[in-house]
Structure formats: C-alpha cells, structure tokens
Amino acid sequence: MDPVELFHQVAQTVPAYQAFLAEHRIDPQDVTTLQDFVRVPMTSKDSYTHRHPLPDLCRNGVIGDIIAVSSGSTGVPSFWPRSADDERVIAARFEEVFRDSFDARERRTLAVVCFALGTWVGGLFTVNCCRHLAERGYPITVVAPGTDRREILRVIPELAPHFDQVVLLGYPPFLKNVIDTEDLPWADWNIKLVTAGEVFSEEWRSLVARRAGIADPVKCIASLYGTADAGVLGNETPLSVEIRRFLSAHPDTARELFGESRLPTLVQYDPDVRFFEEYQGTLLFSGDNGIPLIRYHIADEGGVLPYDELLGFARRHGFEPAAEGPERPFVYVFGRAHFTVSYYGANVYPENIAIGLEQPEVSGSVTGKFVMEVVEDAQRDRHLTITVELAPGEKPSDQTAQAVGESILAQLLRLNSEFANYVPASQQMPFIRLRESGDPEYFPPGAKHRYTR
C-alpha cells in the first residue's frame, strides 16, 4: 500500500476527513512523501469517528451495505459500515490460514463459527469471509451456532463425520470451554482452531491441542488480529507461531525483543492493504475500509517488526525456523491500552466497573478503587477478576463480595453490549477479591493507581 496515495484518495472523497484536515490546517497538496504523511495528525474514535455523522465518514458520504457495531466505554455504540469488497480483502487473511495451514483446498472442511452473532462484528463477518472462500472454490461448508454452547455440541457430532476436518472459529477461552465441556471424540474429527480477540499463552495452545487431539499446534491453531474498526489486520502463520514458541521458551530473549516480560500475539500482515506505524508503544494503521482510516490510533499496545529484522534477531539467538512463511512484516500486539482488559473478546472498561461500585447498595462499603485483570487458573481457564478496596474500617466478607460482584455484573450487562453477548453467561460473574483500605500490594497509599494488570 502506498499510504500517501491512500491519503489523497480519502482527502478527496471522505467529507469527515476533509473537515478533519481543514480543522488542523492541513493542505493535502503539501503531503507528497512518506515523511510528510507521518506528520499528518493521527485520528481516533474521540478525535475523528465520534465527531462526525456516519455518512460523512464514508466515501462520497455513502454508507456501505452492512454495518457492524462495537460498544465503547460508556455503552454508546460505534458503527462500522463495510461492503462485500471490504470482506473480500479480509477473506485473504482467512484464505492464508485455511490454505497454507489447514490444506483446505484438498480437504472437505466444516467451518463452525462460534463468534457472537448479531450486530457484533465477529460472527457475521467470519461467516461471510468463509463463504467468500467457498466462492473461490474451497470445499468449505459453514454452520454458525454462535456462542450457544448447547447448539455447538449438538451440531458438531451430527455433521463432523461427513467432513475431512472441522475448524472451530471463536474466542480462545470460549473454544477451550467448548472442548472441555463434553467427552466427545475430538481427535476423530481432525479439529483445527481459528481464534481472535485475546492474547493467549503458548502453554494454552499446547494444552488445548492435547485436549482436542490436535497433533500439530503450530499449523492447526491460528490467531487473527482484528478490530471492529477494520476487520482482520493480520494473522498468525506457521512461521510466526514457531518464532513465538521459541520466544515463549526463552523469556529473556522475548524481553529483549519486546521490552516486556509478557508475550504478545505475533502475526504477519499484508503491506499491500495495511500500513502500520508504531507510536509511543502503541499502533497506528491506515487502510481502506467501509470507513477509510488514516493514521488511526487503535489504542493497542504493540509494535512493528520488518521480516528481515525479526528473522535476523531469531538467528542471532540460535533459532532457525523450519516453516517457510511469507516474506511479510510482523506486527505484535499486547492488547488494548487505555486500561481495558479483553475477556472472551469483549473489551472491559474501567468505567463499567466504577459505575458498579457507585451503586447505593455497595458504595458505602468500598472506596471506589479497584484493579481488574484476567487471571488464568491451573486448568488454563481464564476469569475476570476484580480486586476492590474496602472503605476504612470495613473487613472482607462473603456477603460484601457477593453484593459487589452482582452490582458490577449488572452494570457490565447494562453498559457493555460486547460483554453481554460475547461472554458466556456462566463466565460473566466476576471473581471479587476484597482488600482492606491501603493494601500495600494493590492500593499503596500515595502511589498513582492503576486500574488494570
């Protein structure tokens, strides 16, 4: 992709971007080089998409033929139109996984879409992309039970014997729960997984592969990096998974590369359709979508690694990947910045939790300070865990913890439509840990408070 060329196309055809440039006193004719382009002000939900009517954000003021919805921190929805042409571009990411990792051109494949259906971006987008692959000649059949676990477990045993392989597509913890819930002959069905929405560990990949009878976790479990704003931005390849598994086993090397002790998702992206930049440890991208976006700040912590740079780094540390991946750049993603956590693919915002603690039935017992985190237990299951500071003089009790959990859950369900629809009902109640006022581990006096871990 030539980002300068895209910039000029958007400046000529998108009313909202014309207004954005005028507001910042940018003359599009002055942007002729990449150096000029990277000095153009960034866009974001707050500075751009939320400030303009939906038609003005689209090319020539025309809304696309389908709209996806994502919920923000206050529950106010964001609308993301797209067209069949947009989906065909995204389908290339699915095609790479199905073709190169799953050999889906030669195998009759049942694609079971376990993302949330409805207006939320994941389910219908995935259904449409899989159908685009079928149009391209892949022997793929799609069934879409969504997040209804009972329906998933009803249709798979009936349909799986008629196919060479079964691909489950969904959020990582949800797919694990599905595999764990029934004593089904998963190994007989040649299971593959396509995940999105959350970072998972390589230990998780290995564990789920064992439980699903997957012999090759490198090729048979692939994660997509996607957003409601622009669909799928990148995908794991066997090459990226091999490198990530090496880094997982060598945490000091991973820390040298990423500057963090935690391990991010590592994917490859197509520079012909996406342009990534790194800005203060977060990601910007430019791309032509239903709403064309220029230097859009998606608030994901991460960075960009050129192909030669990452392969050279791996080799200098004694690792030579066996997989022959595409010679395309890598992007790594820790997850959403701005104090959100991702749980079953839903962004959980501090504002949602704070409102739960402000309700009259619990507000007298707590200070309003809390820390939210997604904690993985010994079984590799993940739980939304919220540590709450009690008011001075209050002592932890099961009764208070129950009341706090119910109040927070009520507000999450009220304000966050992604949480309500993505997270299975059995996993929605948060784990509440109560700490006394001034707890030195979570609420040290005088320190700047962090609401996430």
User: Sheet bearing the most strands, described?
Assistant: 6 strands, mixed
Cα gyration radius (Å): 23 Å
Measure the end-to-end span: 36 Å
In what range is the share of β-strand residues? 15-25%
Q: Whole-number average pLDDT?
A: 92
Assign a percent range to the helix content.
25-40%
Widest β-sheet, arrangement of strands: 4-3-5-6-7-8
Catalogue the unreliable spans.
none
Number of DSSP helices?
A: 16
Shape: globular
Structural class: alpha/beta
Total beta-strand segments: 18
Structural write-up:
The protein is an alpha/beta fold and 453 residues long. It is built from 16 helices and 18 strands. The strands form 5 sheets. It has a 6-stranded mixed β-sheet, with helices on both faces. Strands 9-13-12-11-10 form a 5-stranded antiparallel β-sheet. Helix 1 packs across helix 2. The longest helix is centred in the N-terminal third of the chain and has 18 residues. The mean pLDDT is 92. This is Phenylacetate--CoA ligase family protein.
Helices and strands in order, then pairings?
Elements: H1 3-13, H2 15-23, H3 34-37, E1 66-71, E2 77-82, H4 84-101, E3 109-113, H5 121-135, E4 140-143, H6 149-159, E5 165-170, H7 172-181, E6 191-196, H8 202-211, H9 217-220, E7 221-227, E8 231-235, H10 238-249, H11 251-258, E9 265-268, E10 275-279, E11 282-287, E12 293-305, H12 307-316, E13 330-336, E14 341-343, E15 346-348, H13 350-357, H14 360-363, E16 366-376, E17 382-390, H15 398-415, H16 417-422, E18 431-435
Parallel strand pairs: 3-4, 3-5, 5-6, 6-7, 17-18
Antiparallel strand pairs: 1-2, 7-8, 9-13, 10-11, 11-12, 12-13, 14-15, 16-17
